[in-house]
Specification:
Layout: E1 2-5, H1 11-18, E2 24-27, E3 45-48, H2 56-67, E4 71-74, H3 82-87, E5 97-100, H4 110-116, E6 119-123, H5 129-137, E7 142-144, H6 148-179, H7 184-189, H8 192-198, H9 224-229, H10 236-254
Parallel strand pairs: 1-2, 1-3, 3-4, 4-5, 6-7
Antiparallel strand pairs: 5-6
Helix pairs in contact: 1-4, 6-10
């Protein structure tokens, strides 16, 4: 049996996929979201899909002690070196295998994306066979990275913060277009064919198109801005720039 901890935008789609090949129980802080019930059965993998917080490690340790799984897999976006911190926690057995395997996908189609993206994972232990077998049963390709902190940084630097930086650049170009009475979409059409041939100019356009766009309410949600907070000390200049441009864009659209 596996247990999915957290049945939100990440946990529920992952639960739906795992439940096709494994007996699984879904646990959530909201009782109405819980799926199934654990009655003391042996737990193979505890999957953490809960949001990161200052007491994240203590929350995870509490659930590991309760369910005593053979393996803990952290799917949540976490502060770098959280996986190592949990793995070294003196309250936990040295036999516990701790893996980090970040989620990739868009919330609106998360279950579909989870099934099509390769699942990156890493551990400070050598043995990841339990997870490898699960991925094989789910018909999902896996990629084992060298270290968990490689992926902890990758999730933030190469996914959410990277997207945030691209969006804030689009915000800045929109500001210039408005200043000089330029057709914003027409201006960005100039890059479309370049991207078509070179693949290195992420297309920008209006909301509703399959392109990066500037939302009048700025960068919201609980991914881009909260995630960059996790690496603020290493990315302080970018952190400040994104926040500054985002706030300016919000004010501009309110005028």
């Amino acid at each position: 049996m596996d247990i999915i901890l957290g049945l939100g935008e990440i946990g529920l789609p992952w639960f739906n996929l795992v439940s096709k090949v494994r007996e699984v129980v879904g646990v959530d802080i909201l009782a109405e979201k819980c799926k199934g019930e654990w009655s003391g059965e042996t737990v193979g993998i505890l999957h953490s899909c809960i949001p990161y917080s200052d007491n994240y490690v203590d929350i995870i340790v509490k659930h590991v002690l309760k369910y005593n799984p053979k393996m803990l897999i952290i799917h949540s976006t976490v502060k770098p070196f959280t996986t190592r911190k949990i793995g070294r926690d003196e309250r936990l057995s040295r036999e516990l295998q701790v893996l980090f395997s970040p989620i990739r996908g868009v919330h609106a189609r998360m279950e579909f994306d989870l099934g099509r993206y390769d699942k990156f994972y890493a551990s400070y232990h050598d043995d990841c066979n339990l997870f490898k077998r699960l991925l094989s049963d789910m018909d999902i390709n896996g990629y084992q990275a060298k270290t968990p902190h490689t992926l902890e940084f990758a999730k933030i630097l190469c996914d959410t913060t990277y997207l945030g930086f691209l969006i804030t650049y689009a915000m800045k170009t929109e500001e210039i277009a408005m200043k000089y009475d330029i057709d914003y979409n027409e201006m960005w059409m100039f890059a479309d064919q370049i991207h078509q041939y070179l693949g290195n100019r992420p297309p920008v356009g209006s909301k509703g198109s399959n392109k990066l766009y500037v939302d009048s309410e700025g960068i919201g949600g609980h991914c881009i801005l909260p995630n960059i907070e996790l690496v603020k000390e290493d990315l302080n200049e970018v952190y400040n720039l994104i926040h500054q441009i985002n706030e300016a864009s919000i004010k501009r659209h309110k005028k």
